[in-house]
Amino acid sequence: MPNKYDSTNNNSTNSSVTTSLRCVAINYSRATVIKLFSLLCGLSNSSKSSLLISATQDKDADPSNRFSFFCTNPSQSKVFHSQKEIRAWEAELKTDINTNAKSEIPFHSGWMGYYSYPSAAYNSKSIIAEFNYYPWCICFDHLNSTLHLLGNITKEATGLFVLLLDEEVRSKNTAADFSCSSFTPAWSKQDYRDAFNKVQGYLKAGDCYQINLTHPHQSSFQGQASSLLPPLFEQMQPNFGGYFQGQDVELISLSPERFISINAGGRLEAKPIKGTIKRSPDSKTDQLLIEELSNSPKNQAENLMIVDLLRNDLSMSAAPGSVKVEKLFELESHPNVHHLVSTISAQLKPEIKPSAAISQAFPGGSITGAPKIRAMEIIEELEVQPRSLYCGSLGYYSDSGHCDFNILIRNLEFRDNTITCWGGGGITVDSECDDEYEESITKIRRIMDVVENAGKTSY
Q1: Tens of pLDDT along 353-365?
Q2: From 224's CA, which of 108, 306, 342, 374 has a CA 20 to 30 Å away?
Q3: Does residue 18 surpass a pLDDT of 50?
Q4: What number of H helices and E strands is found in the chain?
Q5: 245 in a structural domain
Q6: Is residue 257 among the annotated active site residues?
Q7: 456 given a catalytic annotation
Q8: Which domain holds residue 298?
């Protein structure tokens, strides 16, 4: 068993937040970290756990992508039923940008939670956002292989931190009793075609030039959702994944896409995805698919539409002249698909709070279409049911002044013994129905396979 505290640094500042830090260097793989964090999520005395997973080991990558965070047993919980409630809470959010200003780790304590995708179908009882305040967190640095205990440390936090270093705990089987039925699509292929044709009608009439069309698949289940974290994260390797235990929902996000991050210095960054092609196990075929995607005028045009939309969204909160396209049509490969990803940055106006910037740009343009408002109206009309958390956003507002939110795609929403998993994509006048339908399934087929294989039982 490794030395529990290779280095210990307890700092007290003059701010209202006292931060302690315990750090241990330990050679944990990404899979081991996820297994251990999922084990902590499943402990009987843990409640309302949150887990945000990144896993880059690229020393040149965005530093905030290096870290995975585990939090549990929040000191405060907030559920919101209206935009008015959300705005009032956001106006009260406070950060102390002097706290841990020199730390590379963006989250020590703060609020983690989600915003649901907006829908006119929600009523006064619908929970449209939910956030928990965590005074401490356990963080794993994937680049330096260090485990950190951060924030206002409690006896419980120390106990969980030490538990992660226990060799017997690492050897435990995290699989819980879990069973599920096969996923069933809410739409047949003909249903999808009917909706696709209506989208084409709106596009040709000039209502929009891109509309994101999605549809859900559902499965019945029994058991513990967090037990699925190790196999799902191993298979999907998401850049912006997470797990959240809410009041009446559990969420597993396997998202490859950042919505917006804002660091303590006010730098905004959005990384919209638009342009997708399936992968092949054959390396030569896979390379041909990469070349097809990278050189596709259609996919580049779709990506550029959303880049322009995000530039406009960020400009509402950005200092004049600060919005920049850092990268355009960058190839990003995932276990199941290749994507085109662009990066837009800006500098936050001093008078604008991070939460206001998130609200101004929400929901993300890559999952609505453009123009955004009209696309959302058409989505509301055509899709089979409200998206709920899907295409919303999961992330955090850190006490240190950082915030980071993903786009809630490649999700599993566990509610009332039903799992819901959505797939979809952006439609333009050049889109082919069969290709778009196949893409919508390709994006989530591996996710559903993992869940079904984990839940094989007589049901």
Answers
A1: 999 999 999 999 9
A2: 108
A3: no
A4: 11, 24
A5: no
A6: yes
A7: no
A8: 178-240+265-454
What's the number of CA atoms in the CB half-sphere (13 Å) around residue 395?
29
Among 51-55, 183-187, 419-423, the least confident range: 51-55
Write down the catalytic residue from 90, 250, 257, 413.
257
**For the whole model, what pTM was predicted?**
0.91
* 23: confidence class by pLDDT, cuts 50, 70, 90: confident
Given CA atoms 293, 296, 298, 299 in this order, what sign does their dihedral have? Answer: positive
Output the DSSP codes for 240-309.
Answer: SEEEEE-SS-EEEE----EEEEE-TT-EEEEE-EEEEEE--SSHHHHHHHHHHHHT-HHHHHHHHHHHHH
Q: Which of the four pLDDT bands, split at 50, 70 and 90, describes residue 175?
A: low
Given 170, 203, 226, the domain boundary residue is 170
Residue 307 binned pLDDT confidence (cut-offs 50, 70, 90): very high
If asked whether residues 287 and 190 sit together in one domain, one would say yes
Q: Are residues 218 and 120 in the same domain?
A: no
Q: Which one from 35, 48, 271, 274 is the annotated catalytic residue?
A: 274
- Rounded distance between C-alpha atoms, residue 248 and residue 209, angstroms: 37
Contact call for residues 32 and 47 (beta carbons, < 8 A): no
Whether residues 293 and 415 fall in one domain: yes
Number of domains in the chain: 2
Domain boundary among 116, 138, 170: 170
Q: Are residues 290 and 326 in the same domain?
A: yes
Residue 148 backbone phi and psi in degrees, to 5: -120, 145
Residue 135 covered by a domain: yes
pLDDT at 233 over 50: yes
Q: How far apart are CA 232 and CA 364, in angstroms?
A: 24
- Shared domain for 344 and 447, answered yes or no, is yes
**pLDDT higher at 165 or 348:** 348
Asked if residue 188 and residue 146 are part of one domain, the reply reads no
Q: Please give the Cα distance from 37 to 128 (Å, whole number).
A: 27
| Whether residue 149 is found in the same domain as residue 226 | no
